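The aim of this short unit is practical: by the end, you should be able to scan a pair of folded records and say something sensible about each. We start with the first protein, listed as its amino acid sequence and then its structure tokens.
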Amino acid sequence: MKKHALLSLLLLCACALLPSAGVAADYASANEVNTRLLRVWASEEYGCSIDKDGDLIVKKKSEKLVVSVISKVHLIRVAGYFKRYDKLSISEMIRLANKFNNKKRVLRVSIDPDDGNIICDYYLIYDGGLNKANFLSVLDWVFGLKDSWENFVINVGKED
């Protein structure tokens, strides 16, 4: 009887240590990464929703990022879309985007040649899985790069 009670107590303790159903762990294998999981992780710090295309929309004040999971190749694309800087021509914006890309090397900035709007995107590989801290730091970093890009443009390509 004592063995049964001890075994029951150990089983109860082990179950208490397991994550509850519906609670996202801080790590996901490559096959577990999806927009629903990323939404749970990001919603602790940001406003989040999933759009009609299945992409995660992450909001911070008036800024937003679009997070797309490309599961076939284990990539997450984090993209920010911004209005053009009206004081410069589209060709000057393209020149600055190329200069910025050459100097920064991690984030890609592209300019729509028709309207001059800006797309900043970053691709995160998650072949070996993904942890929450890494994903959230990427979001923080991309939100911060918008300011870096804007300062770069305002200063016409001169470093801060």
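Turning to the second protein, read its sequence before its tokens, just as you did above.
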Amino acid sequence: MNNEPPFSEEQKRTLKKVRLRWLIALLTNAPLPFITLPLTGSAWLEQAPPQEAKQAMLVAALLGAAAIIGGLYSRNQAYKAYWRGDVVEPAGYLRGNTLFFVAVNAGAAAMFVISLINAYPAPTFFAAPIFVGLLVFNFPGGKPMLPAPPRIGIDRDGDSR
């Protein structure tokens, strides 16, 4: 039994491209904590984090939040630019999701660099699960490219449909 919605050939090609980009984004974010740990050394284990590391953690959190918000905003703006009727054209779906994945990867890269500069792995360790979870939650299913199902309920006039 196939649960895949009825996509056109162009939509199927677009969905494959978006899913490949999603996989690349996921595979670049998932190993970052394991790369950060050997590069930062173990000196941070034996002492309390210095003030610079605490400030770096705050900067990392703000950069991560900005990356997430910016990525979601950019994706929605790309969807709006390619909105026709009640669907997003495949080009808009590809562009919007690519912008979102780039923003998430930029946020992860910023965390990684901040961790390396301060020799303190916490920014990457805290951010990587959030970024990976966000990517998993936003797995591209192609729903914006499909017409919305009819809504059943009560009209604004109070009449039932």
